[in-house]
Amino acid sequence: MTLPTGRQGIWAAWALALACAAAVVAAIAVPAWVAWKRYDAIATDAAEKIERYRRISVNREDYQRALDTVKARESARFFLRNTASTQAGAELTDLVRAAVESNGGRLSSIQPATVKDDSGYRLYTLPVGFVATPANLTRILLALETTLPYLLLDQVTLRATVPRGYKGVPNVEPEVSVTLEVQAYGHKDAARAAARTPATSAATPGAVSGTPGGAR
């Protein structure tokens, strides 16, 4: 292989020197730029967190007042009292059975309650079927929606129990077949234990007490 000479050799030498210099600069600059981008992202994220925590600390008194308001309203009464899944399901079943039977309805089917985790709580779902007159159905739905703990109604289906063209009988109100899912929220065992630990320790240090009506 013959190397260029004269002016061409000079230009080739300069090109080779520039290529070597560029390679050296790239070998140093690229890792430095990647590292700078990484640490800049970390520093920006840390600064945003600090700013966020600063805003929270500024509003600490407002948050504390809101928490005190929630505690004063006894929010636990809106949830099922039992924390064990089987006992909470039985509690929901008893609530629904009482609401239906005490308002003139007749249970036709009731299945075991299912449970799933939902945003830090447990959501219990109870499929129920019953028969009632329209007037009694109104009272049953009102009882379910106004009881404590809060109950949610889902998948409500109404079916007539008389054929089309039915001619009513005086003083006899035709019944309606109802199927629906009744849902209620409950605390997890760990969440309820953590929530009641401060109050328990403050009242009787070293003692542990159960939640009224809950799992022992």
Could you explain how this protein is built, in words?
With 216 residues, the protein is of the alpha+beta class. It folds into 2 domains: 10-73; 78-163 and 173-190, 2-Layer Sandwich (Alpha-Beta Plaits). Helices cover 51% and strands 19% of the residues. It is built from 5 helices and 5 strands; from the N terminus they run αααβββαββα. It has helices spanning 6-58, 60-72, 85-101, 134-146, 189-203, and strands at 106-110, 114-118, 121-132, 152-160, 176-186. Strands 1, 2, 3, 4 and 5 form a 5-stranded antiparallel beta sheet that branches. Helix 3 (85-101) runs antiparallel to helix 4. The longest helix is centred in the first third of the chain and has 53 residues, at 6-58. The chain is elongated and about 120 Å long.
Topology as H/E string?
HHHEEEHEEH
Give the CATH superfamily of the largest domain.
Ribosomal protein S6/Translation elongation factor EF1B
> What is the annotated CATH architecture of the largest domain?
2-Layer Sandwich
Low-confidence regions = 196-216
* Helix/strand/pairing category: alpha+beta
Share of helical residues: 40-55%
Q: Could you state the oligomeric state of the chains shown?
A: single chain
The radius of gyration over CA amounts to 35 Å
Summed over residues and divided by their number, the pLDDT gives a mean of 81
Q: State the distance separating the first and last CA atoms.
A: 92 Å
Beta strand %: 15-25%
Q: Enumerate how many helices there are, as a single number.
A: 5
* Main beta sheet strand tally, sense and closure: 5 strands, antiparallel
Would you tell me which CATH topology of the largest domain applies? Alpha-Beta Plaits
- CATH top-level class of the largest domain: Alpha Beta
Total strands: the figure is: 5
Give the domain tally.
2
Please tell me what the overall shape is: elongated
